[in-house]
Amino acid sequence: MVRLQSGVTAEQDGRIWRPAPAPTLTPSEEKEIAYYSGIRRAHGDTGFFDLLTAKANFIRVFQLLADRLDLQPGQTVLEIGAGQGWASCLAKRRQPACRVVAADIARDALLYAAAYEQLLGVRIDELWECSVRALPFADAQFHRIFAFASLHHFGERHDYSGILAEVLRLLAPGGRAVFLYENWSPGWAIGWTRRRARRQMRDAVDEDVLHLGHLRDACRRPGGRLEVEFWPNPSFRESASAAAYMTLLNRCRFLAPLLPGTVNVTLTPPATP
Questions:
Q1: Could you tell me if residue 4 is inside a domain?
Q2: What is the pLDDT of residues 145-166, one digit of tens each?
Q3: Is 61 exposed, middle or buried (0-12, 13-18, 19+ CB in 10 A)?
């Protein structure tokens, strides 16, 4: 098992670990838990197929972006906001010699990881039911931390300083965190973009959109470095209009930093003296 913070113990329920005592949940986290609990109550294990088809385009996009993780044998890798664990399974399949840990607040989501493991012929090394805002792990032990289209769920009233500080605490020297396929918006459009994202999810979970200026400020306070890759890829979008919009941004690259789109964000810790 990965090392835990001083004073934190762990209890196990099947394959899933949880810290003890468990932290107080935020309303946003309670929504996430209720979302997956509803799926499991309605469909049980067969809900896996519905979730798989719903995530099919995300899975294809992750395969396009997986090189950004630069996984190497012997690394310890943490996925936060792992949901059903499919991205952790793909990471493990890509580099079997990594130790892969998947963490999410919703136990009912993590229970579906076994179906992805069976499908892909891998096994995630550890599954953790825990809050990303209070990760139970000891400092400086993960060579890679990643999330796929999840960072925007981790803010507190659009403030990401808490989660970025937590990630920097956990990164080993020379490590990095990679947040893939995140929706972002410039300040002039962010209110409209946030409302649109919430309408698309029918308020089932709290959606947000990244403001890169705020994100850079939140990273700078604990001394981290943030790099942004504008990635307006039109493939596997949810609609023809979304694909056409991303095609425009892709062909007119000067527009990508000016208009709402998708980005990949890399966070590195301060250099050790």
A1: no
A2: 999 999 998 988 788 999 999 9
A3: buried
